[in-house]
Fold this sequence. Notes:
Elements: H1 2-29, H2 36-43, H3 47-53, H4 57-61, H5 65-77, H6 82-94, H7 110-124, H8 127-139, H9 141-148, H10 151-173, H11 178-196
Helix pairs in contact: 1-2, 2-3, 5-6, 5-9, 6-11, 9-10, 10-11
Amino acid sequence: MVNIGLRERKRRETRQRISDRATRLFERDGFETVTLAQIAEASDVSIKTVTNYFTAKEDLFFDAEPAVLDALITTIEACDGPAAATEALRPLILDGPLLADPRRWADVGPEDWEGMRRWSRCEQDSPTLTAGRSAILHSWIAPLSEAGGSRAWAGLLVGALLLRHDLFHEGILRREEPEEIERVIRREVGQALDALGTVDTG
């Protein structure tokens, strides 16, 4: 049992190291130009090891998205129908700069904001990542629909999440103050959630 636990911990550490090193390379050199060989070299592993953990280069950039989807589904499944789920999702969607991250707006320091700005710039500058973001969000409609019991509601929820993503990236790339970004997201995404809460799923 101890050996299994140690092995799993080492796997997680290796996976996180690869993800972290890839992130630094993407931010420095741009997503399109970085190769798997460079990521492997920076992580002190083989290319095969990289691909064992991440099936595509895009998976390295979007490493946190599965946790976001899991958090959404867990919240929705704990609710009695889409209307209740909409309200339960508000804190997750509005109360912090990053989805599925426990840090609130006021808890994020200047260094973290600069890191998020570099990340946003990397995504914006890459056609592959821009298309990847759209594909990921579209792929969420089916599991969110299954969790909430309404495809229409799930599609509108994904629309609200896309709006949130765009507002956050636009604000951070314009170097707006965090308080202003928060204000805009709370107002505009909050309005989208208000509308979502009125959807007739019967």
